[in-house]
Write a structure and sequence with these properties.
By secondary structure, this protein is of the alpha+beta class. It has three domains: 7-78, no CATH class; 83-198, 2-Layer Sandwich (Uridine Diphospho-n-acetylenolpyruvylglucosamine Reductase, domain 3); 203-313, 2-Layer Sandwich (Enolase-like, domain 1), CATH 3.30.390.50. The chain has helices at 14-23, 38-43, 53-58, 103-108, 110-115, 117-124, 129-134, 137-142, 151-156, 253-259, 266-279, 290-314, and strands spanning 7-9, 29-32, 75-78, 88-91, 94-98, 160-165, 168-173, 178-180, 183-184, 191-198, 203-211, 222-231, 234-243, 250-251. It has a five-stranded antiparallel β-sheet. Strand 6 (160-165) and strand 7 (168-173) form a beta hairpin. Helix 10 (253-259) packs antiparallel against helix 11 (266-279). The protein starts with 6 loop residues before the first strand and ends in an 8-residue tail after the last helix. Bound molecules: flavin-adenine dinucleotide. The site of flavin-adenine dinucleotide (FAD) has 35 residues, from strand 2, helix 2, helix 7, helix 8 and strand 10.
Length: 322
């Protein structure tokens, strides 16, 4: 593939990476995770032509993150040799996942499979084995696509993102992270360091369902994720999020609200799913029509909630697929 020329920087520690970013702050520098989005964007000159309407339409909502410049980057700073950015660990009631953890790592992790089932559903449905081996969790979140397969369940699970710079660390909710297609609140001197999930000490379940035109290597037509926390048979928290139906991953608080302080009955699930479909604002494109997408939101939300219920109450895994 023909790429524009750039210098490749490959620090081995976070401190070194942040030092370099400080020193190059007036230069066109981009962070490189696995490169499965960025290198394709560079090859397709999406970065060069971010203001070209043809590219915007062609890539369907996709605009690269940190695109403050409209020329290709002079430097790519690879995060791949920074060991501190990779790994999945439990600390008390928290699960902490490094931004450079690959999608395959998520897919193979027992912790993710058992405790963050919705995220596991997103990981195994992303791309193909090759893409999952290279692509990282942080890259999928920072690329900020409205259909990103790990972003939709991360938001449903109330994931928090730790951003680090030489100025220090700040923790933000995923709810507030994405501003629009390819656009996040990350500042040019910041790196996404890790993603944190707080686990409830009562029954809970999460699920993500992706509807795509093919079984693999396909961006979703619609994605729906849900997470519920149940205490003594009553829902005390419910979050429903949707992918590919708005310019960014969409949280639908009104749908979650309907489930609160009640049992998670079929009837209540039905009502929440209907509300979710009313809040979706999909477009029509080559992947699917707006009307079709809206009706599929209802179907997928309902199924996701039923899987959440089964996972929460039976502590059994049910496979989530469309
Ligand atoms: C053939 C193919 C199929 C695909 N299928 C899917 C799919 O089904 N579902 C899906 O969701 N995606 C899919 N993708 C997109 C892509 O693989 C994922 O988004 C992947 O997780 C991106 O991770 P990466 O490490 O490769 O990101 P990169 O390409 O390295 O980076 C993406 C963006 O994030 C920034 N970035 C990366 N890491 C950090 C960090 N730690 N801190 C701050 N900024 C950072 C980069 O600067 C860049 O702007 C597909 C891609 C390809 C090529």
């Amino acid at each position: 593939m023909r790429l524009p020329k750039f210098d490749y920087l490959s620090p081995t520690s976070l401190t070194e990476a942040l030092e370099i970013m400080g020193g190059y702050k007036n230069r066109r520098l981009k962070l490189l995770g696995g490169g499965t989005d960025l290198l394709v964007d560079l090859r397709d000159k999406v970065i060069l032509d971010v203001h070209n309407p043809h590219n915007q339409e062609h890539r369907c909502h996709i605009k690269p993150v940190q695109s403050a410049f409209n020329e290709p980057p002079e430097y790519l700073l690879s995060l791949s040799r920074i060991a501190d950015l990779r790994g999945i660990r439990s600390e008390g009631n928290k699960i902490i996942i490094g931004a450079m953890t690959t999608i395959t790592d998520l897919e193979r992790s027992d912790i993710v499979k058992k405790k963050l089932s919705g995220l596991h559903d997103g990981a195994w449905q992303l791309g193909s084995p090759l893409v999952r081996n290279r692509g990282t969790y942080g890259g999928n979140l920072c690329n900020a696509r409205p259909a990103a397969d790990t972003a939709i369940p991360t938001m449903a699970l109330g994931g928090k993102l730790v951003l680090i710079s030489k100025r220090g660390e700040r923790t933000v909710e995923h709810d507030d992270f994405v501003l629009g297609p390819g656009n996040t609140i990350i500042m040019p001197d910041e790196i996404l360091k890790e993603i944190i999930f707080d686990l409830p000490d009562v029954q809970y379940g999460s699920a993500y369902i992706k509807l795509a035109n093919r079984k693999a290597l396909e961006i979703s037509v619609v994605g729906a994720a849900a997470s519920v926390i149940i205490k003594d048979g009553i829902v005390i928290s419910a979050r429903i999020t949707l992918g590919a139906v708005a310019p960014k991953p969409l949280l639908v608080p009104e749908a979650g609200q309907l489930l609160l302080d009640r049992e998670l009955t079929d009837d209540n699930i039905e009502k929440a799913a209907k509300t979710a479909s009313k809040k979706a604002k999909p477009i029509t494109d080559h992947r699917g029509g707006a009307t079709y997408r809206t009706s599929m939101v209802e179907v997928l939300t309902k199924r996701a909630l039923m899987i959440c219920r089964a996972r929460a109450l039976n502590a059994e895994r049910m496979e989530a697929s469309s």
